[in-house]
Amino acid sequence: xxxxxxxxxxxxxxxxxxxxxxxxxxxxxxxxxxxxxxxxxxxxxxxxxxxxxxxxxxxxxxxxxxxxxxxxxxxxxxxxxxxxxxxxxxxxxxxxxxxxxxxxxxxxxxxxxxxxxxxxxxx
Length: 123
Prior knowledge:
mainly beta, 123 residues, seven-stranded mixed sheet, 0% helix, four-stranded antiparallel sheet
């Protein structure tokens, strides 16, 4: 199993980025997929999650800090999950990770992790 995150970069505050997470070795539609981020000197935190299609029809949930600005989605044909990030703020600067799991539970329940992609938002 391999998750490949991409799409990070440098953007000005107020701008947008779309992160991608492509999977090999598993089918994303069967998994709960999450995005997490870790800023320098901070613990990794939850950003957004998308449930498997068989769980609540693939419902989503978001951290309060990104609600209304970020959108998680999935393209089943491409076996890829996206994180559309709009109205970016400097405090969104972090390494972003995608992860997948068949289990319920917090961050520790995620079994498969991508390598991370850097997002830097300048003020």
